[in-house]
């Protein structure tokens, strides 16, 4: 008889169980900092600094380049061959100005 009561109790327990589902809340944010994150941030900061410094470097190089061209223009005298070479050099410097400045800026 004890086994019959136990089985009845067990069957009653199973039918009385309620199923409830809980909604998942927002997950906890990952707050631990890694060394890789710090290195990446340093690299990004360095790249930003290089980009902000590049225009000033470019301006300095452009000024020197223009100064060199004006010096060549202001030189007088010499043989006809020297004057022709000077005028050709000025022509080549002016024609390739942007490429030459870019190459000089990109040098480490």
From TrEMBL:
It comes from Streblomastix strix. Residues 1-39 are annotated as: Disordered. The lineage of its organism: Eukaryota, Metamonada, Preaxostyla, Oxymonadida, Streblomastigidae. This is Uncharacterized protein. Residues 1-11 have a biased composition (Basic and acidic residues).
